[in-house]
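Morning, I've got a small favour to ask if you have a moment. I owe you a coffee for this, so here goes:

…
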Amino acid sequence: MFYGICKGIREVGKKEALKRSSTFEVLLIYSALSFLFILPDYKNAMGLQAKYYGYIALKSSVIFLAWIFSFIAIKKLPISLYGVLDLSRVLFASFLGLIVLHEKMNLMQWAGLALVCLGLISLKFHKIKPEEKDNFPKKIPSIFIILAFASCALNGISGLMDKILMKQINSSQLQFWYMLFIVILYLVFSIVTRQNIRLTATLKNPWVWLISILFVVSDRALFIANGMEGSRITVMTLIKQSGTLVTILAGRFIYKEEGILHKLLCAAVIIAGILLGIFFK
């Protein structure tokens, strides 16, 4: 739940950070800052068997690709359509837990998953005004829809790897090496693609610092939760959707968005689904 709330706040922080810096500047610098924040914990991250470095590097590569695919897709797709496609990560994570980890869901938890899906789908519905219709593409190339689904699938795989890895290593080890490999991947990508990084200007962006802190704290909470014996991906996937309520409230009170009643009703459906998944085991 803590991870979900932090993720919701982080989404607001990203929106604000991107007003002052480019997408890649934000991703690179906030990943690097996040790694610097966990650097003092390096002693607890040592002592891994060689094979686990490979597994963590694979997880970092999965997330790196997921982010690249999602940025390409979201740039080309209508945001309302992308939001519906992004919902599939909930389904991917749940089904991976069922198939790979052999987790079981009772009738109430299936009902909870259905309510979360229903609430999120309803949240993405937007009545297009006549004057807005010209801004939406009449035909969307299938490659961008495929990339959106690929991003969701990769995020589901990453969550599965977290659960498996946390049975053998501690949260400090996973977070330290995962962040180190992510930073290395971004640095290599920036060199190969010759990205223009305004280091000083981006470091002066206070939102980058905020999302870096939230990223470190929330990921540590998630890794610890994954390491607990009783935790299950199927249930945790539902709980993590609690961040939706944060973004709805931010839309109302920070960005003065319209249609808040509809969004709150959707949030109520989502919360009902989360409660079903948590309390009816």
Observations:
- The radius of gyration is 19 Å.
- The CA atoms of residues 33 and 212 lie 6 Å apart.
- The mean pLDDT is 81.
